[in-house]
Amino acid sequence: MTTNWAFPNSFFQYAEPDAENVHVPWLELENFQNLKAQDNRRIKTTRDLIHIARDPRHNIREKTYFLKMTNFIFTNVPATPTGIELKITMNRYGRITDDTIQLTLDDEIIGSNKADLSLDLNKIYGSDSDMWSTSLSSSDIVNSSFGIIMRFQSHPNWPHKCSPFIDAVELRIH
Question: How far apart are alpha carbons 93 and 152 in whole angstroms?
């Protein structure tokens, strides 16, 4: 049994420790202004994701804030999950790549990082037999704290200051 694609109902952005003291103060971000719920089920950027850099003059591979998306509402979760798939649809402007693509549960980052350098606009991470190096149970998956952590960066071969636009983030459980 496989669930339908599910969308996050809670989303947050946060910086690495001390980053907001170096570049963009967190309070100026106006409570996650760059993402919004669209049709009460999709996440879509309303403008570019803000980059942070500890030393902008020397770090040309800038990164976005971390994006944490949780509270996916799944139907028909298998009693024993065998795989997790994440689908991200976004505009990478030909030079935005992944930094972090990982699962989260109870405010902890878990499992393997599925980030890669591919510039595909539509990407699927995981498969029907890939549990991302975790041993999650069905009760873990329906837990409202279960979700995904994402972070993007400029491509290492073509550094720049472009920012990604996310159209949709969806999870499916096998």
Answer: 12
**Model pTM?**
0.81
Torsion of CA 24, 30, 36, 40, to 10 degrees: 150
Q: Which two tokens stand for residue 68?
A: 């944490």
* Sequence spans of domains, the chain: 10-173
- Amino acid sitting at position 115: A
pLDDT tens readout for residues 55-71: 544 555 677 778 888 99
Contact, 26 vs 12, CB < 8 A?
no
Q: Which residues pair with 149 in a beta bridge?
A: 68, 102
How far apart are the C-alpha atoms of 39 and 7, rounded to whole Å? 11
Q: In whole angstroms, what is the distance from residue 163 CA to residue 165 CA?
A: 7
pLDDT less than 70: residues of the chain: 15-61, 159-163
